[in-house]
Each structure stands twice: as C-alpha cells, then as structure tokens.
Design brief:
Blueprint: H1 2-18, E1 57-63, H2 85-92, E2 94-95, E3 101-104, E4 108-111, H3 117-131, E5 140-145, E6 148-154, E7 160-164, H4 171-176, E8 190-196, E9 199-205, E10 225-228, H5 232-236, H6 242-265
Parallel strand pairs: 6-10
Antiparallel strand pairs: 1-2, 1-5, 3-4, 6-7, 8-9, 8-10
C-alpha cells in the first residue's frame, strides 16, 4: 500500500500546483497594501494623440455654404446597401498608401503620415482656401479614422478582428468585445503588438493591477494586435479550479485503484 500512499501525496501536490490562484483572475486590484477600495493617488488615464499610419483609412468630409461646390470632395456612398459599416468605410474612405499619402479629389496627393486627424483637417482646409475657396465660403473640414480595427488572439472568448466606430477604446473594452479572457488566460502579461513607422513593438500590460490605467498603452490604437497567453495550468490539463482538479484526480485514482485490485487478483 506504500506505493499508493506515495501516489496520493504526489497527486495532492499536483492539485495544489495546478489550481489557478484567485488573485490572478481579478482585474484592477489595488496593490501595495492599500487600506480602502478607492482608486489610489487619483489615477489619471493617459491617452496620447494618435498619429496616422500606413494602411489607415480616413473618413474626410468637407462642408461649405454652397454644398454643391464641395460635392466632388465627399464620397457618394454608392456601394452595396447590404454592406457592413466596415465595408462601406473601406470603399468610401481614403486609404493611406505606403508613402503616407492620401489622394483627394481636386487636391491630389496629400501626405498625412505621422499627423493627427486635427492636424490633417487644418492641412486640407488651408490647401482648399489657398487653391479653390475664399474665406467667405465658410468651409468646414472633418477628418476621422474610419473605425478602429484591432485583432485579439490567444486565450480570449472569440479570437479575431474587430472594428469599433469610436474615437477611443481601452484595453478592457477591446477584450470585452472579443468574449473576455477565460480563467486560463494570463491577465498579468497581456501583449500589445503595435505598429510604428520604424516597425512593430511589443508592450505588456498587467490587467490585475489598477495602475494599468496609467500605462501609455491602456488605450489601444488602430491595427493593434492583442495576445493573451494561456497559463501553465491549462497545459497540465488538471482543471481550472480546485474542485475540477480534485474531480479529475479522483477519477484517475479510481481507475488506478481498480487496476491495482485487478492486478492483485492475478
């Protein structure tokens, strides 16, 4: 019976090591021995102005007192009525080419790489006033990103790409839109793969720490890739919680006991 006792001790150790700690499943924890449940130190969310990158799609609209004079500058929206918002944005928008330019009717190519949407609005307005209109035309230019597209992979409910039509999206909103992170996902080291003019960089976020709200990567950007690694407990295959691990091991013990009894009768 001694081998059985050793086996039981070994399996108990596996149960303890395979359970996912409760603290690893909770978002936005106030760490460093905080004494209350309020946000410490008046945390301020940080969001840097987004600067346009290659392959971004811009939605450009020009208005004037005489709207007919700017009709050519605005997309006609003749695409399929059954197309999704993302598809219409693709066909009606202005895509930034590999050189950082967009081609605008009557204005030609305009370099927008590295500019914010507000700066692009001013550039277009200044060029229109200089080449085609007078101040009395009262032109009004708006430039927006045609949706915020990102991709989420790994331990999330529904991996894939999403397009959200809003100006800003934080990491929690982005993850919520792809089905949340299951218990087996590593919330302490969520990777953000972000594009820059010089190439891609990988940033890490600890979603269990409330100070993640101070991270410059708390808000996602267009074309971000979010990757959530699986916890090592998933690879062990013993269960997500203590109860599921105990149930799995109890089943295994039952099989082993049956095998030992059959062997002893031989």
């Amino acid at each position: 019976m001694k081998p059985i006792k050793l086996l039981i001790i070994l399996l108990c150790c596996v149960v303890i090591s395979s359970c996912i700690p409760h603290k690893d499943t909770i978002y936005l924890q106030v760490k460093e021995n905080a004494i209350n449940d309020t946000i410490p130190n008046n945390l301020v969310e940080i969001q840097k102005p987004y600067r346009v990158q290659v392959n971004d799609i811009l939605n450009i609209r020009v208005k004037a007192l005489d709207q007919e004079t700017v009709t050519i500058l605005n997309p006609t929206g003749e695409g399929s009525l059954s197309a999704s918002s993302a598809e219409r944005a693709f066909f009606d928008g202005f895509t930034v080419d590999v050189h950082g330019n967009v081609r605008i009717p009557t204005l030609g190519y305009l370099n927008v790489l590295g500019f914010t949407t507000e700066e692009i609005e001013k550039k277009i307005e200044e060029q229109l006033l200089k080449e085609q209109f007078k101040e009395t035309a009262n032109i009004f230019v708006t430039v927006k990103l045609a949706g915020l597209r990102y991709t989420a992979n790994g331990e999330v409910g529904s991996p894939g790409s999403q397009v959200l039509f809003t100006d800003r999206v934080n990491i929690f909103e982005a993850i919520a839109n792809v089905g949340e992170i299951p218990v087996t996902g590593n919330k302490k080291d969520v990777k953000i793969i972000r594009q820059y003019p010089q190439g891609q960089k990988i940033h890490s976020l600890d979603l269990t720490d409330i100070k993640v709200m101070q991270s410059p990567y708390y808000y996602i950007q267009p074309n971000d890739i979010i990757y959530v690694e699986p916890l090592k407990q998933k690879s062990l295959g013993t269960g997500e919680t203590a109860l599921s691990s105990i149930a799995a091991i109890a089943s295994l013990l039952s099989l082993l006991t049956t095998g030992i009894l059959l062997y002893s009768r031989l």
